[in-house]
Amino acid sequence: MAAAPYVVIGGGQAGLQICDSLRRLGYDGPLVLLAAESSPPYQRPPLSKKFLAGDLEAERLYFRPSSWFEKNAVELRLECTVTAIDRAARRVSCADGSVVDYARLALATGARIRPLACPGADLADICYVRSLADSEALRARLPGAARLAVVGGGFIGLEVAAIARTLGKSVVLYEGLDRLMARAVSPTISDYYAALHRGHGVDLRLGCGIAAIERTRHGLLVRDANGGEVEVDIVVAGIGVVPNDEIAAAAGLECRGGIVVDAQARTSDADIVAAGDCTWHYNGFLAREIRLESVQNAVDQAKVAAASLLGAGEPYVQVPWFWSDQYDVKLQMAGIGMPHDNSALRGTTASGSFSLFYFRDGRLVGADSVNRPADHMACRRLLAQGTMVTAAQVADSEVDLMQIARG
User: Fold this and answer.
1) 151 closest CA partner among 108, 184, 188, 114
2) Residue 348 burial by CB count (10 A; 0-12/13-18/19+): exposed, middle or buried?
3) What is the pLDDT of residues 154-173, one digit of tens each?
4) Mean pLDDT, rounded, for 95-115
5) Are 364 and 379 in contact (CB under 8 A)?
6) Which residue among 210, 237, 264 closes a domain?
7) Neighbours of 347 (CB within 10 A)
8) Whole-number Å distance between alpha carbons of 365 and 346
């Protein structure tokens, strides 16, 4: 009887990385990747950036050509949604009626969009940007749309707004909180981006949620919680995501706002690991539990998960980092700066090239860099090495932070 394969559930960044790492680490047994979507694993960040703008075609989003899966003996099953995990039988069941036995299992189920929850939220002209199909559908509709309403002032909403304004569309953006990207950045960064978007003609409505959406003869009427009304052609919602941990929870794995894993990406079952957006994990760098939604986390945690499948015990201690492109402005984030008790500005916000470094209890914990990539790279290195640096040093543009990082 043939040996049962290692099975990876999830065809995103983390799932593909687990397969790649398993092969690089010397695993030569059978390997199956179960992907719910019809497309092979692809990059998600460009979906709200270059791909949506029409500057990148779908084929360039794919992580690997089809020949890679053949060469590395990875059995890729597309349009295969896993519905249940039987841990006792070591078997997963799929929506198409098939079952797959496993020797060891990796969960990289990712996250799904958080849908709008107001009257009219189910109308056909309300779009989201999570999958390739989502972005393709919105991209196809943009040429015929003159007016957009964007719901959500986080990264996705702002990136979509920037693309729409670059294409000459009228944009109204609603954010329920009183500032942009409030859960991720400081008020200084929020204020800079509010001014940036207003300067590009976006009608920002902060502290303003959506009460209802109605169809009209000419489009959609958006009614906000403050009594305002705007008629648009398309509504794009970007109000966050929800981790896909249901099948894990149903199988009896510990879940707590995500699949709970330890520093080695191991779940409460010794034969099952998990990685990526779906996990609630202990982060060694932060010394606390967290759920991260980023390419960096998906890649680095997946590498640890693959090693754990093969019996290694390397902990996940990578410095978190993230980026966002809006207009010609690149925001790069290193570490987790929220919360903090002190901050230091390097450069000036007026110049459009600056970094805000965050400190907690006298230690550097993160930095947000705007059009300042050298600061970002230096901060990542400083954080990874635990190098002590003062607020006065980072605020002085004459101080070479990379030299300090190098010791």
Assistant:
1) 114
2) exposed
3) 999 999 999 999 999 999 99
4) 97
5) yes
6) 237
7) 18
8) 15
pLDDT tens digits, 216-251: 998 999 999 999 999 999 999 999 999 999 999 999
Domain count, the chain: 3
pLDDT, tens digit, for every residue of 113-146? 999 999 999 998 899 999 999 999 999 999 999 9
d(CA 401, CA 377): 9
Q: Which of 309, 338, 356 is the last residue of a domain?
A: 309
DSSP element (H, E) containing 307: helix 295-309
CA dist., res. 148 & res. 280, Å (int): 35
Contact 150, 161 (CB under 8 A): yes
> If we measure between CA atoms, which residue out of 263, 369, 257 comes closest to residue 321?
369
Does residue 134 lie within any of the structural domains?
yes
| Gap between the Cα atoms of 153 and 179, Å rounded | 8
pLDDT tens-digit series, residues 267-279: 999 999 999 999 9
Q: Which domain holds residue 217?
A: 126-237
Within-domain flag for 317: no
Assign residue 136 the CATH number of its domain: 3.50.50.60
What pLDDT is stored for residue 286 in this prediction?
Answer: 80
